[in-house]
Structures are given as structure tokens and as C-alpha cells.
Design goal:
81 residues, 3 helices, mainly alpha
């Protein structure tokens, strides 16, 4: 099936290829479908990790600047929620 999406060539070990074939047969999906799903999941986890790291760094800068934080429970109390 023709596509305009970028293509990437990847070389796997024989044992990894055998394992992927077993998974594809069990899940009734194509090899490219399996690899695409694994990469999408990994990229999402990696993005989450980067965002968490950025949030930690921002929090550290915030506190080093002499600012204080409060919990969401404390905020709710202050707002009478």
C-alpha cells in the first residue's frame, strides 16, 4: 500500500526477529504494525519522562527563588471548595 509517511529501515538480531514474528502471529498484526505500536508507546513514555523532569526543574527554580508551594488540599481549603 503506497504511503507518504516517512520510512525507516531498522536491522534486528535474528532472535529479536523471531520473537517479533511470534508476537505478530499471536496478535494477528503485521511486523510494521507491531514496531509502530511499540515505538509510539515508547515515545509517549519518553515524553512523559521529559515533562516530569522539566516540572521538577521548574519546581526547584521556584523554591530556590524563595517562593512556596501548597498542596491542592490546602488550596481547596483556602478557596472553600
Amino acid at each position: 500500500m503506497p504511503t507518504n509517511k516517512p520510512r525507516v529501515n531498522v536491522t534486528f538480531s535474528e532472535s529479536d526477529t523471531e520473537m517479533m514474528h511470534l508476537i505478530c502471529n499471536k496478535k494477528n498484526i503485521s511486523m510494521s504494525g507491531l514496531i509502530r505500536k511499540v515505538m509510539e508507546d515508547w515515545l509517549e513514555e519518553y515524553e512523559d519522562m521529559l515533562l516530569a523532569k522539566r516540572a521538577e526543574e521548574a519546581d526547584e527554580r521556584w523554591e530556590k527563588g524563595g517562593r512556596k508551594t501548597i498542596s491542592h488540599e490546602e488550596l481547596w481549603k483556602r478557596l472553600s471548595i
